[in-house]
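WARN no homologs supplied; continuing
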Amino acid sequence: MSFQHEVSLQAVVGTCWEVLQEQLEGTHEEVRSFAVSDGRYGVLITRHRHDAYSLAVSPDVPYGMTYERDDPGTP
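OK structure emitted
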């Protein structure tokens, strides 16, 4: 079984950190369930800006793990 799954998350202007954190946690759980069901990949969370993230099933992340990184293009 091989597939890609990526979710982009953009906070609405005025969203407080606690609400954004809840959205990130819920989205992480959704993406993690896809990664675990395949049994080969982990989850990569990329911060593009303080209010914009992407979460993806990634072959670059070991099974069962979650890695975080900043987008290298972010100023």
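The two ends are 37 Å apart (CA to CA).
OK
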